[in-house]
Amino acid sequence: MLMSCSKGKHEEFGRNLAKAFKSRQYKNFDTEAYNEVFKAELKKLKPELHDPNWITKIYNEENNDNGLTLVGAFLINGKLDNLHQNLLNAKYHGLNPEFFHSDKITELLNTVKTKKFKKVEESYPYLAQLELYSADGLINYANILKYGAVNPKTVLSSYYVSVERPDFIDAEKTLDLLDLDKFLEDLQPKNGYYQRLSNLLINDDKPETVQKLSSEDKQKIYLSMERLRWPVKEYKGKYLLVNIPEFTLRLIDNNTTDLQMKVCVGEAGGHETPILSGMIDRMQVNPVWNIPESIASTEIISSLRKDSYYLEAKNMVAYKNGELVNSPTVDWNSADVSQYSFKQNPGADNSLGQIKFIFQNPYAIYLHDTPAQAMFKQDMRAVSHGCVRVQQPMQLQEFLLNDKSKSEEIVKETEAAANGAKAEARWVKIKDPIPVFISYYTAWSDDAGNLVSSKDVYGYDKLLMPKFKAYMATL
């Protein structure tokens, strides 16, 4: 269990307080008397604390010597002031500083530093409150910066990124031995795009800034920063980022965009592209499209009932019990479509285009080329069944393979197929698999630090807002 400073150290603390804040009464500081007041304040303040169970575990009511864990270690040396400033700066994380008791800590720090108490006992409630509000503020600030304020699983059923939400500060650690300044520095999110969004808020707060952020843009930034705190795996090194609301794919290396392209994503209303991540480890050149049952049972069967030669016209085939069937001879009006599977053979008219990019996930989501290039001219590109269509597949395969000869071979192969040569499906392994993150940010930043604002195409901001509002900075 957490142990605090010794009694002798606390009495020395009183003498040091008197010297630091020029208040003689602090010299008469009595540890036992203070801790009795501390226990009373703990009981009184519990309803105001965000994590009373954690606080109770740390400040075990049976332990009469831990009521100055933070104040005893960090008040005189100024490190508690640094914590206070970090809590005030929570607004640059899109968070309300008052959620972390910053306003109360401001008043209490001023009181214990400047008030000339007639009796030392008058200082005990202020010091106890400073201790409790600081501890509760610290643990919640740490947990929110590390994991986010809201559990994404409670917002979206289609959030498929792993989530871990333990207490970031372990209750077994001794807080008065914590290197508080280093802990607070290390706690700051390292993601370059998070930092750029934070800088937008910092610049907006400067009096000399002429063009201020709108309330709508601020809200988008706040919600996007919250989402950036969610992933267990950080965005770092070389990776792909699909931003659904922006309809954009970025090929990123060390927070710099190497290539950016348009994408089409799942249509709202039942075909939304899920939020997930994985490692792209292979691609299929001249791919076969294994048509999902959801599409076969609706679009394919409907077309077949109108035209029994539909499959031939679309370079598709049907199988029953693993055997190829002659489509025009089947009575599709009475056929049980669940007994059939459908594929589209490789070719220039394949719905997956000339290449698809695979990463392991249980939802059969992947990135792929498309023959429907006209869609990329539209502003609204939520048009697919859920997979992500990419505008520049050849540039993407070059980025992934990082092998000029292999990339050139793929280009020649696909160009020949486009010109009428027989197309054969072929798998290509990616030597160094690359992370891909399919994400949802209505606010983003370009490499120059400018805000990129997008519409809430799936309405996910509206879903998050009610749960995040209690933590959110002012607009």
UniProtKB/TrEMBL annotation:
Source species, domain of life: Bacteria
Molecular functions (GO terms): carboxypeptidase activity; transferase activity
BP terms from Gene Ontology: cell wall organization; peptidoglycan biosynthetic process; regulation of cell shape
Keywords of this entry: Cell shape, Cell wall biogenesis/degradation, Peptidoglycan synthesis, Transferase
Entries under InterPro entries matching the protein: LD-transpeptidase_YkuD-like (IPR052905), LD_TPept_cat_dom (IPR005490), LD_TPept_scaffold_dom (IPR045380), Transpep_catalytic_dom (IPR038063)
All residue ranges annotated as the L,D-TPase catalytic domain in the record: 238-411
Family: Belongs to the YkuD family.
Lineage start: Bacteria, Pseudomonadati, Bacteroidota, Sphingobacteriia, Sphingobacteriales
Pfam families assigned: Scaffold, YkuD
Coiled-coil features, chain-numbered ranges: none
Pathway the protein contributes to: Cell wall biogenesis; peptidoglycan biosynthesis
Name the UniProt record assigns to this protein: Peptidoglycan-binding protein
Active site positions: 368, 387
